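Our preliminary data section would be incomplete without showing what the modeling component actually yields. Below, a chain of 102 amino acids is followed by its predicted structure, encoded as tokens that our downstream tools consume directly.
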Amino acid sequence: MSHVYETPEVRRMILIDADTGEIIKGGIVVDEQAALSSPCHGFRIELDGKTSELVFSKGIVGALSEEEKEKYCKRGIIWEEPPPRLAERLRILHEAGIFRRK
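Predicted structure:
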């Protein structure tokens, strides 16, 4: 059964705290079985000389925390180049002081 959480756009959402500008650590698990049974996908983005990793999993909305990566990425992480529009948005947010990945 397919639903809105299965679209690539939603699976690769980044949740940002509107008050602090920090990335919310961890995603929202909507289908744990899907998350456990599929590989993760990730992007590496360099901002100000530091590499940030954003990892996503089917069945989870938002980027995964370190703890979630350990739990849900047992089938591996498929590293991809970030889509140009995502990389550009993150650079713009970073320059505006909104995207600060630790």
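The mean pLDDT is 80. Residues 4-95 form one domain. Preliminary results of this kind motivate Aim 1 of the renewal.
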